[in-house]
Amino acid sequence: MNFDLVSPTTTEDLLRAIDEHRGRRFRFGAGYTDLLLDLEEQQDNELTVINLARLNDPSFTSIVHDGGEMRIGALVTASRIIADRKLQSRYPVLCQAAGQHGSRQIRHTATVGGNLCTASPAGDMACALVALRARCDILPARGDARSLAVSDFFLGVRETDLKEDEVLRRVIIPTDDGEVKTHSDFIKIGKRRSMECAVVSIAYHIESDGDDTMTRAGIAIGSVAPTIKYARSACEYLVGKRLSSLGPSERDEFAAKVVEYASPISDIRASAWYREDVLFNMSKSILENH
Amino acid sequence: MSHDNSSRSGGFGHRLTIAFTINGRGVTREIRPALRLIDLIRDDLGLKGTKPGCLEGECGACTVLVDGDAVNSCLYLAANIDGKSVTTIEGLSAGVDGPGLDPVQRAVVEHGAVQCGFCTSGMIMAIESFKRQCDTDGVVPNRERIKKSLEGNLCRCTGYKKIIDAVQSLFEQVQGADGAS
Predict the structure, then answer these.
(1) What are the tens digits of pLDDT across the range B25-63?
(2) Which of A53, A165, A171, A239 lies most in the core, judged by the most C-beta atoms within 10 Å?
(3) Do A5 and B16 touch (CB under 8 A)?
């Protein structure tokens, strides 16, 4: 493994480094839990890693709750997400997904930005962020920042909308401070309980008012399509209904709507029909256990 | 980290200078940019207690502490320990009060939680980090939580029961000392 390393400490230096490496082979390094394995394979002697780990800019490194939104820097680790009390109470699904990511050692270093930019269909925190309808805040080497929905950020397996001269700065979750009851979880089916890449995963965040009527629903599914999918029609189906009064046929109807977004393949870890059946049953179960 | 200019590439084949603390001792080293922490620890610093297992972050044999947090040293860039504090298994047995076993090491010995020993140093570092976090948070973990904390450490000999017993005993001692039930 051989590469050159550039370690900017300010955003200004980072953007300059990106600009200078335009047209040359470079990768970003943040938590390195995926990158070092990736680079182990390559024999490229001309590769530069732009090391984000030394960056000292709060917009990349901190979690900020500011009135209408929650901003999570791309370099925030899974452990820090798990420990954040605001996130625990307002968007527990993100903490639940981060808690099932890798091992404790991996969670101490793996970053939320890395989980998004890896663009794996099995991404854990990424799945929760799609369910929460979070947005990516992207910084180009020159010009103004742009923003797009996390679900639009993914173009295919390990492929994102990030251009060669851009870097992911943070993710933003729109929020309001009203009193809501939250029903959420991240469920990951793998071959074992720990250190597993999802065979099927689902992240859901459902908010209800005092009357138990669902006012907001976000459901995302992983490992059943080339990218993580937001199950829009299933979410719309729930809003306005009461969670506690859904009957078996409504739960089936809801689960069928979720499955419509899946286009699973058979691979070394599971067959397509298994993934689809499990997804149907998982979807029903989230309405049963509340 | 000293570069001519940190935002500019030093060119291929250049070396970096990093300053860090290893087991309480400050050191400065010149390294290749792509050097992994495990190779720095074992080959450069000669501390062979940190074990190379899978070298892909699955087994946890190479676990060390960076600023108190357990990390896989096989997936950690050595350049990023600049300005940080690294603790390996050798740093525990050095002891605060002179050479001797650290409480985690003692608990592992007393519970017979070792067979071939290959996973042991990584296991102990993972327990050490978990224990510190529980103490900071004022939490006494149950068995499920202890198991969860060790999900990144594989042991192919013991079947884990004695390891988990050893971890649990650490928290019972704390409770006893406090007189809490």
Answers:
(1) 999 999 999 999 999 999 999 999 999 999 999 999 999
(2) A171
(3) yes
The CATH code belonging to domain A58-174 is 3.30.465.10
Q: What is the DSSP string of A27-57?
A: EEESS-TTHHHHHHH---TT-EEEEGGG---
Give residue-wise pLDDT tens across range A32-86: 999 999 998 777 778 999 999 999 999 999 999 987 899 999 999 999 999 999 9
Which range of residues forms the domain containing residue B52? Answer: 16-178
Q: Which of A7, A105, A191 to mutate to test the interface with B (most CBs of B within 10 A)?
A: A105
Tell me how far apart the alpha carbons of residues A276 and B12 are, in angstroms, rounded to a whole number. 49
Domain ranges for chain A, please list them.
Answer: 4-54, 58-174, 181-288
CATH code of B71's domain: 3.10.20.30
Residue from the list B6, B56, B80 with its beta carbon closest to the beta carbon of A53: B80
Degrees (nearest 5) of the Cα angle B48, B54, B55?
Answer: 70
Closest CA to A237 of A223, A225, A252: A252
Specify if B164 maps to a domain: yes
Q: Which two tokens stand for residue A66?
A: 């500011």
Residues of B in contact with A10 (CB under 8 A): 7
**Bridge partners for A188 per DSSP:** A201
Cα(A241)–Cα(A101) distance, integer angstroms: 32
Reported ipTM: the value is: 0.94
Helix (H) or strand (E) holding A81: helix A78-83
